[in-house]
Amino acid sequence: MPAEAAAPRPFWSGTISFGLVAVPVDLYPANRSGRVALRMVAPDGTPLSRRYFSHRGEEVSWEEIVRGAEVDDGRFVTVSDEELDVLAPEKSRDIDLTRFVDAAAIDPLYFQRAYYLTPAGDTTKAYRLLAAVMEDTGRAGIATFVMRGKEYLVAIFAENGILRAATLRFADEVRSAQDVGLPEPETPPKKAVDRLARAIRAAARPALDERELEDEDSRRLLAVAREKLEAGEDVLAPPVLPDGGEESEGAEVVDLMEVIKRNLRGRATPPAPARRPARRTERPGRKKGSARPKSAAKPAASGTQRAGRRAVPDLAELSKEELYERARRADVPGRSGMSKQELIRALKRSA
Amino acid sequence: MAARAIWKGVLRVGETEVPVKLYSAVEDRKVHFRLLDAKDEKPVEQRMVHPATGEPVEKDEVRKGWEAEPGVFVVLGDEDLAQAQPEASRAVELTRFVPAEAIDPPWYERPYWLGPDGDDAREPYLALAAALEREGRQGVARWTMRKKRYAGALHARNGRLMLVTLRNAGEVISAADLPAPRGRQLAERELAMARQLVEALEDDFRPEDYRDEHRERVAELVAAKAAGKAPKVRKMRPKKPSDDLDRALAASLEKARGGGRQRRAG
Fold first, then answer.
1. In tens digits, what is the pLDDT along chain A, a chain of 351 residues?
2. Helices (H), chain A
3. CA B113, CA A181: separation in Å to the nearest integer?
4. With an 8 Å Cβ cutoff, is A74 touching chain B?
5. How far is the C-alpha of A98 from the C-alpha of A169, rounded, in Å?
6. Interface test mutation site (partner B, options A142, A182, A243, A246, max chain B beta carbons within 10 A)
7. Which residue in B36, B103, B184 is closest to A68 by CB distance?
8. A237 → chain B, closest CA residue
9. Reduced to 3 states, what is the DSSP secondary structure of residue A224?
10. In degrees, to the nearest 5, what angle opens at C-alpha A223 toward C-alphas A221 and A226?
């Protein structure tokens, strides 16, 4: 991969419009997966591939697969990619902020995923202006916008002079206390409240400590795996196969934070060639060893094979949620327990 | 109709225990597709195949592998995975209580409502909700659910408790670690106009004002095809902003002051 391909393409590029003011921005995820990734392997350690099989036990190629929604009577209605493409909202390059709300008043229940917005135009003036005013007034802008063929409800926040976006659940995607059937609240005895309030004050802290959010599952899993590695137990180096040897591990091959920093400092990414998967990029001198040398034998077929399909490129740029959604559409078994990397792999296999 | 609880646990705050039921606070509205064999429109199944032979590998033969270094795998068996699993427990430990606004939105992952589990739980449940609201704090919780460890924020609103799971340490890029974009000082006049514009567009967050039209269109398409009708197509139109900052602000302000009122009244 050429050296100038170092910076990944933004997740989305567009314009925040604020009245008639246009603020060109690039959008990058603010969330990244840190979970330890495991792969499905054969007893000899060879990473396995996913394939589709019919109920008669025959392998079915991707070209022979159609997408269907189950309708009430157990019947499937097939829907083609072309039909779905027509329905996809027209690409709008706009996040049109028509409403500003109290940023602290958005219920945490709505928050889905977070992104950073970095200035993309020749000047940062409009960006800084919007950030300054929103931060100063404690307001968040609300809009709907279209990203990657889907519609999102989004809140734009300003923090430390930086614009941030959060995708929000739509109203019909959340349940109220009434929906769930929680009992009507009553006034509890004052003594009981006082006792709990004292317990709360006793454990009160001024802020969240990130250390409390440690991924304990990954820590434990890594400890077990490393112990086996040191003991030389079940450590296998399977022969690299043309089809098997792809994908390296490591949640983030590209250092997302560096990319966002660079963009905020105004050294914007040169427009990247279209449709190149961004994730496999390696910057010289960085991340030595963690990225596996790309196997030249990686079949080029994965691109051509799927021409005309929509479940195509840049999987690594998608959020875990979006990957999961795709995995669900593709009916990937075991998807709920998969890490981001596993989902990417599963989707590639399924293609 | 009341929803089904997905888990039962016990909140621990100081000496008080509050048995609770956990309910999902999100509703899946997506249209789900399955992959079908085009020949008979029956669902296909995914299987793992060995890349050397192309032959399916039976489920009980499939192992998990941790890639220690490129091409080197530590194979983990069921016992290894079991060893790594957290101990099962019903306890939801509340380790500390932070101010209600102390957790930034990017940490939030998935919300759950909590309801009292049993009649005896009612009073401590209500008392905990009232105490959290009175103190203006939220609890930081850790618990084990379905063989996984979770971290969450315990909130109270209107006498009810909600637990929102939080992302793991390192999974959120903090704005505090990022440099703000720089440039020439902003003009007072523009700052003032921008401020007025934000104020003119101030409103409450009303989620019910927004709809996922794309999802609705997909559902309509499926319903139409199921009924044997030709699907109808609706499209959206984009708008166009301008780039003279000062003029755009003035014009927007004018518009917002005129139009905003009407919209709100209507």
1. 333 344 568 888 999 988 888 899 999 999 988 888 899 999 888 999 999 999 898 999 989 999 999 987 778 999 888 888 777 776 667 898 989 999 998 999 999 999 999 999 888 999 999 999 999 999 999 998 888 778 899 999 999 999 999 999 999 999 999 999 998 889 999 999 999 999 999 999 999 999 999 999 999 999 999 999 999 999 998 887 655 444 444 434 467 788 888 888 875 444 444 333 333 333 333 333 333 333 333 333 333 333 333 333 467 666 666 677 677 666 666 676 676 767 777 776 665
2. 81-87, 125-137, 177-180, 190-202, 216-231, 256-264, 301-304, 320-329, 340-350
3. 10
4. no
5. 18
6. A182
7. B36
8. B72
9. helix
10. 110
What's the Cα-to-Cα distance from B101 to each of A140, A279, A312, B138, rounded to whole Å?
15, 34, 40, 8
Complex confidence, ipTM = 0.86
Contact assignment for A151 to B215 by CB distance below 8 Å: yes
Determine phi and psi for B20, rounding to 5 degrees: -135, 155
Among B20, B28, B31, B74, which would you mutate to test the A interface (most chain A Cβ atoms within 10 Å of its Cβ)? B74
Q: Do B236 and A146 touch (CB under 8 A)?
A: yes
Any B CB within 8 A of A31 CB: yes
CB contact under 8 A, B52 and A229: no
- Whole-angstrom CA distances from A183 to A298, B155, B160, B234 are 58, 17, 9, 42
Instruction: Choose among B129, B169, B178: nearest Cβ to A261.
Output: B178
Phi, psi of A47 (to 5 degrees): -60, 135
Taking CB atoms and an 8 Å cutoff, what residues of chain A touch B69?
Answer: 289
Is the separation of the CB atoms in B114 and B157 below 8 Å? Answer: no
Q: How many CB atoms lie within 10 A of CB A301?
A: 10
Other Cβ atoms within 10 Å of A274 Cβ, number? 7
Structure tokens at A255: 């250092």
Nearest to A170 by CA among A144, A190, A146: A144
Token pair listed for A61: 């190629």
How much is the pTM? Answer: 0.79
**A142, A5, A179, A333: which is closest to B202 by C-alpha?**
A142
Complete edge-to-edge strand list for the sheet that includes strand A111-119: A94-97, A12-18, A21-29, A111-119, A162-168, A150-159, A139-147, A99-102
